[in-house]
Each structure stands twice: as structure tokens, then as C-alpha cells.
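A quick aside before the break. I want you to see a complete sequence-to-structure record at least once, exactly as it would be stored in a machine-readable document. Don't worry about memorizing anything.
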Amino acid sequence: MSLDPFPIPDDSGNGRDRPDAAPIDEAEMAKRRRDMVRVQLLGRDIDSVRVLDAMRVVPRHLFVPRDQVSEAYEDRPLAIGMGQTISQPYIVGLMTQRLRPELTDTVLEIGTGCGYQAAVLAALVREVHTVEIHKRLAESAARRLKALGYNNVHVHAGDGWKGWPSDAPYDGIIVTAAPDHVPEALKEQLKVGARLVIPVGNQYQKLMVVTRTEKGFVEESLIDVRFVPMTGGEDEGA
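That is the input. The structure line, written in C-alpha cells, reads:
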């Protein structure tokens, strides 16, 4: 069955999608998805079979505004409204691979956006909790994920700086917006042995992996990245 993309709010909260847009060629989208995995992921350093398989399956073109469907599988981020973006496919693959998700895991995502990263995680773990500070985006993503059958994803509207303590601790946490430092609440919601994958910095950031050990936390710096800022937070009384 073919599904059209859902309207994604713009900065005014209105849907951006054009009702008269041309029908989507699902066979062409599947080919572009396979090419994306072959060139952008396998062609670099993404070698997790499970991550590659998930990204071959999740229909990225159904997570972008209708006027950007033709660009859904290109090697770059795309605007999704409300000042937010869907990450470049390679970055989604890299962050997911470094999380090292297992089938029995319960993971937390901070920054739901359009729901694409949550959908990729949903194909890899038992349960996903995802938190989005923009209520309209959270509601839109929840409808989209439900309609596409991702029933193991739970979307919450809230401040990601606080994580989602009611279902902690987590087997992994992934953050798709950039704080200027690693939030302590997220570190404390990790199980021992679990990883937090997060971009840290201001205008430009370092992608970090923070691993909780019996003795504390170990940080690893990966690559330079650029994400939208993580809003809310300890210093804003949110």
C-alpha cells in the first residue's frame, strides 16, 4: 500500500504540503533508498548489517514535506518545519551504528522531529521513547509513526534536557539536537554499559559517545557535525 507524506508544520503551525503534488513512484523511491545505502552508507564506514537493513526499509520520503520528496534520499539534511531538520542519511546511520542497538533494548531519543530516526530505531530495538519539545511536531510525528505501523515507538512532548525519567534507565540514548554540554539528566538515565550518542557544541559541534561504566562515564569524540540547537534546558527553567 502506498502512503503519502503527512503534512509537516511550518513555523506558523500550518501544513506545508501541496495537495496537488504529483503521485509518488514507490518503485523509484525504493531504488533511491537502495542507492542511498550503497553509496552514502556502505560507501563510507557504516558496516552494521542491521543498521543498513533498517535504512533500506524505512521510507524516508514519507518523513519529509511533500515538496521535498524528490530530495529525500540525497546526501544532506532537509528542513521539516518549525526550524528543525531531518538529518543527513549518513549521520543517521553513524549515530545509530555507534549506539549499538540490540533487539531487546529500550532506547530514548531526544528530538523526535519528523520521526525518521525513531522509525530506524524501531526496526532495531524492542521499544523507543522519543521526546520532542515542539508539540505540533510531536503530534505530527506520532500520527505518522502510528499510520506506518511503528507501534513500538512512544512519542512524548516535553523538554529533552530532562530526558524521560519515568521509563529510565535506558539501554541507549540518541540526541538529534545540539546542547552546549552533555545534560546530566541524560547521563543518569543510562544503564551501566549503555551509550549516549550526542552532538555537543554551539554553532558547530563534535559528535560524542558517552558510555556509562561501573566507575563513571567515558567520553569519545567522533566527527565534526552541525545540528540545530537543543532548546529548553536547565538554564531556562523549562
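Two observations worth writing down. The chain is about 25% helix and 25% strand. Confidence is low (pLDDT under 50) at residues 11-20. We'll return to this after the break.
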